[in-house]
Amino acid sequence: ARGASIAVSSPHPLLLPRSAPAASPFRIFPSFLHRVGAWYEMARGGGGGGGDGKPNPAGFFSRHQNIFLYVPNLIGYARLAAVIYSFAIAFVDPLRCLAFYFLSFACDELDGRFARMLGQTSTLGAVLDMVTDRLATTGLLLILAAQHSQLVLPAILLIFLDIFSHWFQMYTSMLLGAASHKDTGSRSWLVSFYYSNRIFMGFCCVCCEVLYLSAYALAFPSMRAFRTPVPFELAEPFPHYLPDGLADALFSSAGVPYLSVLLFAAVPGFLVKQLCNWVQLRAAAISLVEYDLKRMK
Fold first, then answer.
1. How open is the CA angle 280-285-287, to the nearest 5 degrees?
2. Residue 102 placed within a domain
3. Residue 189 pLDDT > 70, yes or no?
4. Which of the following is catalytic: 133, 162, 183, 244?
5. What is the pLDDT of residues 80-98, one digit of tens each?
6. What is the CATH number for 84?
7. Helix or strand (DSSP H, E) at 257
8. Confidence class of residue 51 from pLDDT cuts 50, 70 and 90?
9. Where does the secretion signal sit in this chain (predicted)?
């Protein structure tokens, strides 16, 4: 009859026409992910809903019960696999090793972004992120120690400082009720500024990784082929303060490798990162002592 309403079911999101491509690839990628999520929901419940025809309360790209399959956690698994593979080929294929380690490092930024964008933050993801950070740094320092025997003790000390400071900070944050070691009301202004200012934290972390990766790559003659026109006489004093093997890699009469310049450019950020680790360890230790003293009253 004329005027009678006709119920028309809305099409599934997967079947909707594609919109015009976004100007930025960072907008295209989430759109692609949501299309995959729509396919996932259709496969689960048929037409984007449950078996009763009602829409699913939680989709793949929102908070749901299977935390192991959260998108940021999947990125975390991929990151861990990439760094393990990079270490497996570290002594036979330096270019591929650097590529996969860089991929793992980039995923460290992506998992946090997707966790916030999709509302899929989780304790599992926070712990996975921190542990992968520690293991990646430890593995890279062990490789440097294997390449240059003079760096064994410095590498061990850096590993100790990194693990000590972050574990103390993590445990202190848990006692204070924070979600992760980055959510902290530390007594140190440097630690608070480090974790609250992502640009500063990113600069320090990137400098630290660049220094380690440059030192690793310089152990291979093929990676030292590209050199700067800097006269050797200007760099001649530096090798006297370095281990023999590393000094030969950094400087030679043929010129200074570009990787050497990159390594020394990263030194300030590296030193600030180690200072932050030390201050973080000290502040966390004081907080733990104060916590014990309060319990004794």
1. 95
2. yes
3. yes
4. 133
5. 999 999 999 999 999 999 9
6. 1.20.120
7. strand 256-257
8. very low
9. none
